[in-house]
Records
---
Amino acid sequence: MAQDRSASERMDKIVSLCKRRGFIFQSSEIYGGLNGFWDYGPLGTELKRNLKDFWWRRMVRERDDVVGMDGSILMNRQVWVASGHEETFSDPMVDCRVCKSRLRADQLQEKDGRKQCTICGSFDLTEPRAFNLMFKTYVGATEDDSAVTYLRPETAQAIFVQFKNILDISRKKLPFGIAQLGKAFRNEINPRNFTFRSREFEQMELEYFCRPEQGAELLEYWLNERLKFYSDIGIMSNLLHVHKIPPEERAHYSKGTYDIEFEFPFGIQELEGVAYRTDYDLTQHQKATGKSLEYFDEESKLRFIPHVVEPSAGVDRTMLALICAAFDEEQVTDEKGKTETRTLLRFHPRVAPIKCGVFPLLKNNERLVRQASEIVDLLRPHMMVFYDESGAIGRRYRRQDEAGTPFGVTVDFDTIGENEPSKEGTVTIRERDSMKQQRIGVGEIKSFLMENIN
Ligand code: GAP
C-alpha cells in the first residue's frame, strides 16, 4: 500500500514537472482540454525529435537492409477492410445505465461475482458491444458511405500496401525491411495514465520481410536489437521486461510475439510489440486487390509471398518511459551547509532536449557575456544549447538539472584572464549527474560535447 502511494506520488511529481518545464501540456487546455490528446512543449518537442532521429538512425541509416517511407494518414477504405481493421479492430464496451459512463468490459471490477461500474459502483450495465477504435471521416464533399475512410490506427498498413513499389525501386533482396514513423489514431475508450494510452500518438514501425524459414530466427534477432536500442537511449535493463505472448493470446496469424514492457510508476506496461506476422498482411492485400505482392527469388526461380517480422514501438510511450526512468530527487548540501532537494532528469545525453547550458558568471560583465555568447555561437550549429545569465549560478545549474541538460559550461574570471593567468581561455564544464566540474580549454568544448552526445 505504502509502495502504491509512493509510486502514485512519483507519477504526480513527473506529471507536474512535465507541465512546469514545458515537456507535455494537455491539448486545448484553455478550453478545458480534450481527453486523450496531448501537446508537447519546447523541451518535449526536442526530446521527441531526438528519440525519433535516433530510432531512424539505428533502424534505417546505419543499415544496408532497411529503407524508409512516409505514407499518408488517410488511405483507401478497402485497405482497412482487407487488413481486418474495419471488422475486428474493436474493444468490448458496456454502458452504465446509472451514470452513463462508457467503460471497457475487460477492465470492469467485480463484486460478489457481478461486474460493477468503476465510476459509480452500479451493477446496472448494458451487455458488452464491440466498439471500433478507428476514427471515421469523409473524403470529399459528400458525407455518404462511399466517402468513408478512417484515420490510420497504425502506420504498418501503408508499408504493406507500398511493398511492391518499394521492392521494385530499391531492388532489395530478402531479408530486407521498410521503416516508417508517424501519427496513428485510436478512439480509445479509456485514455489514461498521462500520455500512455492516448487517442493520437506516434508509432515507429519496421516491417522486415523474409523467407518463411527465416521468420522464427529473425523474431529473436529483432527482439535483441530492440532491447539494445532501449539500452542505447539510457533505459536501464532492470526496468525492462520481455513478455512472451502465449499462443492462445496471440493474433491468429502470428507465429510468435514478444511484448517489451517497462516498469512505469503505474505498473509494468507494454512499450513495444515484436511480432512474427507470417505472410498474413501481404496475402490479404493481394487477395483484395488481385495485384501480385509476390517476391521472385532469382536463385530458386520461385515466386512466393514473403513473411514479415514487425518491431512496432510507440514514440509517446517511449518518451514517457524515458522521463520516468530519468526522474530523480536527491538531497544535496550547498557550500553554506544548507540541504535541499535536487530534482533532476538523468537523460542519456543522446536524447536530452538541451545538450549544454552556457552561463557567464555575471551578467553585467561585458567580457564574460561576450565570451559566453561566442561559445553559444560555436556550439549552436551542432547541438541544442541554452544560454542563461540570470540568477545565482547554483540556481541556473538547478534549472538545467530539472530540464535534464547533461552539461553546463561556465565562463568565469579565470576564463577572461582576470584571476589566475594560467587558466585564461579555460571554462568549467559541469556534469549533471555527478555535479563534478573540470576545466577545459574553450577550443576543446565542442569536441568534448560531441563525443558525449553522439
Ligand atoms: N502494427 C502493430 C501495432 O500497431 P500495437 O501493439 O497495437 O501494434 C504498437 O501498437 C505500439 O504502438 C504499442 O506497443 C505502443 O507503444 C503504441 N501504442 C498503441 N496504442 C497506443 C495508444 N493508445 N497510445 C499510445 N501509444 C500506443
---
Amino acid sequence: MANSSGSLYMGFDLSTQQLKGICVNSDLKLHYEAKVDFDEDMSKYGIQKGVLTNPAEGEVFAPPAMWLEAVNLVLDRLHDQGLDFSKVKGMSGAGMQHGTVFWSADAEHLLNNLDSSKTLVEQMEPGSKGERKGAFAHPMSPNWQDASTQKQCDAFDARMGDAHMLAEVTGSKAHHRFSGPQIMRYRTKYPSHYEQTARISLVSSFLASVFLGNIAPIDISDVTGMNLWHIDKGAYHEDLLELAAGGKDKVAELKKKLGGTPESGGDAFGTISKYFMQRYGFPSDCQIIPFTGDNPSTILALPLRPNDAMVSLGTSTTFLMSTQTWQPDPAYHFMNHPTTAGLYMFMLCYKNGGLAREQIRDKLNSNGDKSWDRFNDTAVSTPPVSQTSASDDMRLGLYFPRPEIVPNLRDGQWRYAYNAKNGDLKELSNDFTPDDARNIVESQMLSLRLRAASLVRSEKELATSKHLPPQPRRVYLVGGGSANPAIAKICGEVLGSVEGVFKLDIGGNACALGSAYKAVWGCERKQGQTFEDLIGGRWDEDKFVKKVADGYKEGVFETYDEAVKGFDKMEKLVLKHEGERQGTLTGGRVFMPEDGHGADSQSGKAESAK
Ligand code: XUL
C-alpha cells in the first residue's frame, strides 16, 4: 500500500495503572495522546495502583469492566483534543503481559452487536446478582503481579522435566504470572466459571477484541508469555495444555477457548467494529493490526537493530533485546519477536528498580527532600566500584527493597568488598554510605551485563575501527529513570555500548508508540517489507532520539569486566548463605516466593535531576 498522506494510526497501551492512547501519522510523528489513570479516574472499582489484591493467597487481579470503561473515556479525551477519527486507517495496541480475561459464551454476540448510543461497560458487564450475565465468565483478570501459583509452577516445570527444560521448550521457566499456571489455578479454584468460559484472551487480545467486535487471536509474541507455547514448533504444547486443562480429554476444549494464533504479527485481524464507526466516526476500513504484549511493543518504538538494547527504568527494571540467538535459560525469557519471524525478544525482568534507587536518594537527602541532585552529584563523583586505585577492593552490593527474582532472593541489602586480584569477597558492614549512590546503579547495570553477556557481540569502534569487547551497540533508555543523567552515564560506563546511551525524544510512551508504529507497518508495508525496513526508512534519527551519555570508555569497561566476575560470585555467595539460612529456618525445603515483578515499562516517577 502507498504511503497515504493524511492517514493517522493509533497505538494503545493497557498497563496496570493506565490506559494510554496515542496517534501518529505515516511519518511516525506524534499528534495526539491521552490517558486514563485508573486510580484517579476509576476509583469506584476499589482498586489501588490499578489492582485489587488478596494477600492471603498472593492474588493480584483487576476487573476488565474497568478497562472497558477506560476505552470509552480515552477515546472521549482524544476526541476532545480534536482527533478526527475518520482519518485513522489502522490501530494496534499492547497489554501488560500474561494476564488472562475469561469471556462468557455471550461475549462474541455482545461484542458484535453493541449499541453505539451506550457505553461498552453498560452493555458488556451490566452487573448481575447470582448468575453472571454479560461478556465475562469471571469478573476479574489475574494480573502479572499475582504470586498465587507456586503449586502450578512446580507442576509446569516438572511436566517438562525441570525449569531448564520448560525454558528450552517455551522460552521461560514456570512463572507465577504466566498464563498457563494461572489458567490451571483458575480451573481448579473456579470450576464453574472455567466451564462457562467460552474464550480466553490475554490483556492484549482482550483490547483487540473490543475494537474488532469479535474475539481476536492471541498474537505470535504475547502467546510466548504463557508457558504453553512450543516456540520451536509454533504451536501449543499438548502436554502443557493437558496440565492446564486437567486431562488429555480436556485438551481440545482448552484449545478452543484459546483459539488460533496467526504466524504474522502484521496481517490485520479485520476492520474496526460498527460500534466505533458510529460512536466515534472511525472509517469502515480502519484495520485492527495484532495487539501484543507491552514488552514486545516497547521494542517496536524504534527500529531496534540486533545488538541494540533497551533498558526500561521504571518501578522495576527490564532489559530488552531483539536477537536471532536462541539461548533460553531459567534466569530470563525468550519470546517470539512481534513482527519478524526468526527473531526473538530477549527479556530480563527485575522486580526492583526505581524504589531501590529512591531509598538511597532519601538516605542521602535525609531531610525529606525528593531532589536527585545530591544523589547524582555523589554518583558521578564516586569512582567506578569505589576504587581510587586499581589495587583497592571493589565495592559491590545488592539492593532489594522488594523480593527479587533475578536472582531469586528475599528483600534486603548486601554489601561486599571484592579483591579482583585474588577473587576474595569480604562482607562489609551493611550500613548505608554515600558510595551507595554509585554502587546501586552499578549493581543494577552489572546484573544486566552479567546476564546479557552471551547475547552481545563485539562491535567495531567507529573512530578507530578497533574491535572492542562484546557489548551492545547502543543502549536506549525508556521509563522514569531515563530522565536522570547520572544513571545514563553509569549505565553507559558499565554496559559500554559503543555508540553511547540514547533516550527516545519523541514524546508519548515507548510502548504505545511501538503499537502505533506496528499499525503503520501493518497497513502501509509493501509485500514482504520488514518492520525494521519500513520504520527505519521513516525514522528521523535527529528528531526522535537524543544521545544522553557516552558508552564504552577504555579502561572503565575493563574495570567493570572484573567487577562482573565479583558480582557473579557475590550473588552466588549470598544465595548460598540465604539458602542455608532458610534451610535452618524451615528445617526443610528452601522456598523463595517469586513475587510479582516486571516492567510496567513507563511507570515510576521521572528521576530527573530536579
Ligand atoms: C513481563 C511482565 C511485566 C508486564 C507488565 O514479563 O510481567 O513487564 O508485562 O508490564
